[in-house]
Amino acid sequence: MYKVKITLPATLTNLGPGLNSLGLAVGLYTSIEISKRNDESLVVETSGEGAGSYGTGLRHPVVLALMRIFQKQEHAILGMNVKINNHIPLESGLGAEAAFWVAGVIGANNLLGAGYNRETILEIAAEISHAPDQTITTILGGLTASVIHSDQLIHRSLPVTGLNLIMVLPEIENYAAEVSRVKPERVPWTDAVHNLSRIPLLVEALRTGDLALIAQVIEDRLYLPYLKTHIAGYDHVVEMARRSGAQAVTLTGDGPAIIAFAPSCLSQH
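Above: the chain sequence. Below: its structure as tokens.
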């Protein structure tokens, strides 16, 4: 194959109480087109969110993933054009970086003759991206559940109803570095039970599109209390969203993106 185009969605993970397990694909996308050249040059063009953020093209996760697959298969494409048009904000908790890794894995696999099946692609991408839940969700779309068990990636696609989301993305300097240090290694038993007991109802609420039920079971008591202290005005944003008609509000991933599950009438204003 001489050219491949991959389009992948943003992902909401650490969804409410479903930490490191539930993922929901949303309607923001990154598109990557990879094609062979007749020479040995690597030309990387970026546009949209985060264009130019990775310095030289060789440092971009799409290119790093391409190289990983070339190494695994001991076969490389010497010259390539890589065009990245990204509409997923970087370092926001929306899975842009995982989507880049996945796109590189898929692109290299297709350019080399599709030697890996989808399950192998899932496993490789989950390993090199270090974000299995985002990887699974951006590939499969919809609502997913995943865990790592005995070094094996286990995952399922779950039924979900289309939902309207409103997103707020604060600009916070050094946010990712700051919050990487605040997650607790141990949590109170009551908070762990709180999260675990709500996951089945959250899955059911997402299946049926029951916004009222989502609002009742979306609260995370394990990570959110620590993360929101690094987002100035978080509680105010949540309160204003609820006053405006949003029924459930939470962080996505590790943040700082804040999402609100909203009735369709609200999302149109």
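The mean pLDDT is 91.
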